[in-house]
Every structure is written in structure tokens, then in C-alpha cells.
Amino acid sequence: MSRIAELIATTLAGAALASSSALAADNGFYLGAGLSRSSFDLQQSLDRSDTGYKAIAGLRLLDSFGIELNYADHGNARLPSGIACIALVGEDCPDTATLRAKTAAAFAVGFLDFPLVDFFAKAGLSYTDSSLRVRGLPAFGDQRSSAEFAWGAGAQVHLGSFAVRAEYERFKVFDDRKLESISASFIYTFL
């Protein structure tokens, strides 16, 4: 009986040690990359979207807390420039316009940790560089940079060092106009 009890105790201790190291695999430095779909809110009847990319670097200090840096190129939104210039610049433009936005952000991230899935919310500061360009007419363009509050939320499924993340983020461009982004990313945590 003592050998069976010893074998059971050793097996349970090994399983507990393995499961605790599997859960701890989420903590540490991580890098990620993904694709995003961004929606530029210019007027109620004129929301334009485009696909872009995103890079992520973070440090998960605890199971429930981390810090993260993001860079996102939100792509181009092409739109009738008469509407865009009136909404953004305050002048009428004679051609099609292109709106671009790029964002660098620093976030504090709170995680709700489960064995295979994490839910998270993040808040921080973003620096957005946005530009409106009218082909052939640079006088009708505009470029603005601003530092603003940004936030996001999402979920990630993880297995060891690998994770797949889906998230929603909200930024500001051109004064109080919002930029919403939905992204899917792959994450790798260095142990």
C-alpha cells in the first residue's frame, strides 16, 4: 500500500508542477503581429474602412497585469474629397481624397486569466499621425498628429508560448473623430 500511495503522491505532485508551469508560460516578454480592419468615422453617413497591420510588444508581469506597446498602420480610406475636406479641413476639395492613419500606443493591460483563454481590457496613451491627401492638389491636404487617451478589449486563446488574439481598439484622429480597429494577431511569449 505504501508504494501505491507513494506512486499516487508522486504522480499528483508531477501533474501539479506541470500544470503550474503551463499556466506560468503566459507570463514574460511577448511579441506579436496581426492584421486589422479599421473604420474611419468622418460623418454619420460616411464611415470608410480599410485593412492594415499591427505589431505588438509587451511584458506580462503577473497573471492579471501587463504593459504593452502597439504600432498600427490603419491603412487608407478613399472617399469623395468634397465630403472629407468639409468634414476635416473645412474647405471643399475637387477630387477623391485618401485618409491615412498610423498609431503608436502604450497600454496598461488587465487580464482575466483562465486555463486556455484570457479576456483583457487595456487603457493608455496613443500617438496618432493622420493625413488627408488629394492626388495632384497638395494645398487641399492636411496632416495632424495628436496624443490622446486610447482603450481596447479582447480575448486570446493560448497554448504554452503561442496565442491567438482578437481585439477591439478605439483611437482619435483629426480632433474628436474616432478610429475603431478590430484585429487578429499571433502572439509568442518568451519564457
Q: Mind explaining what this structure looks like?
A:
With 191 residues, this protein is of the alpha+beta class. It has a single domain (27-190), classed as Porin (Beta Barrel), CATH 2.40.160. It is built from two helices and eight strands, in the order αβββαβββββ. It has helices at residues 2-24, 81-88, and strands at residues 28-43, 46-60, 65-80, 96-113, 117-134, 142-159, 162-173, 177-190. The chain has an eight-stranded antiparallel β-barrel with strand order 1-2-3-4-5-6-7-8. Strand 1 and strand 2 (46-60) form a beta hairpin. The protein is elongated, with a radius of gyration of 22 Å. The model is unreliable at 7-25 (pLDDT under 50).
Properties at a glance:
191 residues, alpha+beta, Porin, 16% helix, elongated
The portion of residues assigned to helices is 10-25%
First and last CA, distance = 40 Å
Query: What does the main sheet amount to?
Result: 8 strands, antiparallel, barrel
Rounded mean pLDDT is: 78
User: Hey, roughly how much beta strand do the residues contain?
Assistant: over 45%
The overall strand count is: 8
Q: Might you state the CATH topology name?
A: Porin
The succession of helices and strands, N to C, reads HEEEHEEEEE
If you compute it from the alpha carbons, what radius of gyration comes out, rounded to the nearest whole angstrom? 22 Å
Highest CATH level, the class: Mainly Beta
List unreliable stretches of 5+ residues. Answer: 7-25
| CATH architecture designation | Beta Barrel
How many individual domains?
Answer: 1
Q: Give me the number of helical elements.
A: 2
